């Protein structure tokens, strides 16, 4: 699994970081970033964050 964020579209709601903080965090610029790619134990959380992002800018492949 590889996770990425189209950061220019992030509205800084913080949901991804609260859903799966091992993978997502809010960066110094106030936008979400991936700070660690998910290992197998974190894939469900990463997928849930992607599905629930209000502006659908998290991509999982
Ligand atoms: S859930 Fe989406 S909009 Fe909200 S902080 Fe994460 S990437 Fe940004």
UniProtKB/TrEMBL annotation:
What Pfam families is this protein classified in?
Fer4_13
Tell me the first and last residues of the signal peptide.
none
User: Which UniProt key words apply to this protein?
Assistant: Electron transport, Iron, Iron-sulfur, Metal-binding, Transport
User: What start-end ranges are recorded for coiled-coil regions in this protein?
Assistant: none
Please name the source species: Intestinimonas massiliensis
Task: Indicate the segments forming the 4Fe-4S ferredoxin-type domain, all copies.
Answer: 1-29
Which InterPro entries does the UniProt record give? 3Fe4S_ferredoxin, 4Fe4S_Fe-S-bd, 4Fe4S_Fe_S_CS, Fe-S_cluster_ET
The record's annotation in PROSITE patterns points to:
4FE4S_FER_1 (PS00198), 4FE4S_FER_2 (PS51379)
> What does the record give as the function of this protein?
Ferredoxins are iron-sulfur proteins that transfer electrons in a wide variety of metabolic reactions.
**What's this protein's name?**
Ferredoxin
Q: Which GO terms describe its molecular function?
A: electron transfer activity; iron ion binding; iron-sulfur cluster binding
């Amino acid at each position: 699994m590889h996770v990425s964020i189209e950061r220019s579209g992030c509205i800084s709601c913080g949901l991804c970081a609260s859903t799966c903080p091992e993978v997502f965090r809010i960066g110094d610029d106030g936008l979400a970033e991936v700070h660690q790619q998910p290992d197998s134990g974190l894939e469900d959380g990463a997928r849930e964050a992607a599905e629930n992002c209000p502006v659908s800018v998290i991509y999982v492949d």
